[in-house]
Design brief:
357 residues, alpha+beta, 3 domains, 4-stranded antiparallel sheet, two-stranded antiparallel ribbon, 12 helices
Length: 357
Amino acid sequence: MERKKEPQPIDVLEIFHVLWNGKKTIAKVCLVAFVLSVVYVYSVPRGYEASVTLAPEVSSDASLAGNIGSLANMVGLNLGSGMNGDALYPEIYPDVLNSTRFLVSLFDVRVETSEGLRTTLYDYFCSEQKYPWWEQCFAGIRRFIKNLLPSEEEKKATDVVDPFWLTKEENDVCRAISSNISCVVDKKTSVITLGFSAQDPLVAACMTDSIKQKLQDFIIDYKTSKARNDLVYFERLLQESRKEYEAAQHDYSEYCDTHKGTILQSYISQQDFLENQLQLAYTSYSQWMQQVQLAKAKVQEKTPSFTVVKSVTVPLRPSSPKRMLTVIGCVLLAIVGSSLYVYGKAQMSKEETDLRK
C-alpha cells in the first residue's frame, strides 16, 4: 500500500519571499483598487439619516397577552395578535409605513433644505436629488431608447394623487420614499425606532418628525375608530331625543296654557298623558346624554399615548457612504486577492518546473 503524503509545514519565509518578488503586481492592483474606490465613494451622493425612538402605551390586557405569547413562543406556538383582539400590533408598523396609501400621504409634506429651499417632499424627490454619474448615463440611454420606441398610453396626470392608480413618476417617488424609511420594532419592549434618510440633513430630520406624527395619527385613528363611531351614533340619538323632548315640552305647555282652570276629567286625563310623555322624553334625553358622556370617556380611554424616548435631531455627519471604510476595505480585498494570485501563480510555476525535471 502506498503511504499517504504527510502534510508539509507552512513555510512563512517562502510565502513572504514569493509575495516580495510579486510586490509590483500587488502594488499595481492595490493602486487600481484605491483609485476605483475613491472614484466610487466620491461619485455617490452623501446621505444623512435622522431617527426617533417611541415607546407606545401598552394596555394591561395587551401586556398579559404579550406575556402569554412569549411563553407560547418558548414552546414553539405562535398565538399571533388574536389574544387581545388588536389587528394593528407593533410588528406590522413597517408594513404600514411602506403601504402605498401611507407613502402617498407624504407627498404634500412641506420640507426645507439646509440651503433654504422650501418645497414638498414629492417635488424634492423629483427635482432636487443627486445621482452618480453612471446612473445619469444609464438614465440618458433609457430616455434615448424610449424616444425611439412607440409611446405607450399612460394614466393622465392630475392634481389629485390616486393611490389605487399611480403614474410612473408617482410610483418611482413612492419607491424612493419607501427605500429611505426605516422602522425597527423591539419585540420584547415594543419600542419603535423610526428613521428617514435624505441627501439633506434638515430634510431627514423634518421627515422623521412628520412620519412619527403621521404614524401616531394612524394608530390613534385605528384604535379609536369604533369608539368614535359609537360617539357619533349616540350624539345623533341625543339630538333626536332632544327634539322629541322639546316637542313634548311645547305640547304640554301649550295644553296647560289653553286649558287652565278646566275641571273636566277628559281634559285632566289628557294633561296627565302629556305630562307622562314629557317625563318619558326627558328620561330618554337624560339617558342619551349620559351615553354621550360615557362614549367621550371611551374615546379618551382608547386613545393611546406615545413616549418619545429619543427625540429627533438634525444629523451633523453623513451616514452613507462610509468613504474611509469603503476605501480601506477595497484596498484590503485587493491585497488579499493579488497576494493569492501571485502565490498561486508561483506555485503553479514551481509544479511545472518539477514535472519537467
